[in-house]
Design a protein that fits this description.
This protein is mainly β. The protein contains two helices and 15 strands.
Length: 181
């Protein structure tokens, strides 16, 4: 098998690029208002970084888990455009939003994905009164979903992941910076 790998291949090591030179964020990137991402928040249940994975093994966790009652509304963190709505085995039903240099992903949501015949994709949560379309503009604080249990999850929570200029960032640091404003 190793003879099939490119000569420059190296095993994935998140700690290597997390420690890499990361461009400094603007001093006050939230001057136009940012929103805490979940209503009825109860606890932080799993931090960003290495952890004992609830499904087994020791793995890197690319986000912050925020527990809230099933069906609690998820709010968009910062003004932006919906890059993608989708569903997969790990993240479940999700919405990804682009806000300038920031990309934020919201996972384990209620709802399902509808692919329209024109090719558009929509996250639909009828009981929650939500339809979020790829390409749609969303405001800070706008309801974009509800806490569910889709994908790999052991309980109701929002998995909130963030990237700045393409590099993963600990959302807890962002929340601390927001609180300091």
């Amino acid at each position: 098998m190793s003879d099939l790998l490119p000569l420059s291949w190296e095993p994935f090591k998140p700690e290597a690029w997390l420690a890499a030179d990361v461009p400094e964020a603007p001093q006050n990137p939230w001057q136009n208002g940012a929103s805490f991402p979940v209503e009825q928040f109860t606890a932080y249940t799993s931090p960003f970084g290495y952890r004992q994975h609830p499904m087994g093994g020791y793995r890197f966790h690319y986000g912050l888990d925020l527990a809230a009652p099933l069906g609690s509304y998820i709010r968009n963190w910062w003004d932006g455009t919906v890059l993608r709505v989708g569903s997969d085995n790990a993240c479940g039903t999700y919405v990804t939003v682009q806000s300038g240099d920031w990309t934020h992903v919201y996972c384990h949501m209620h709802g399902h994905i509808v692919v329209e015949k024109e090719g558009g994709r929509v996250m639909v949560d009828r009981p929650g009164g939500l339809e979020i379309r790829q390409g749609q503009t969303v405001k800070s604080g706008q309801r974009i979903g509800r806490v569910g249990m889709t994908g790999r999850t052991t309980g109701p929570h929002l998995h909130w992941g963030m990237k700045y200029q393409g590099l993963w960032v600990d959302p807890a640091i962002v929340l601390k910076a927001m609180q300091a404003q």
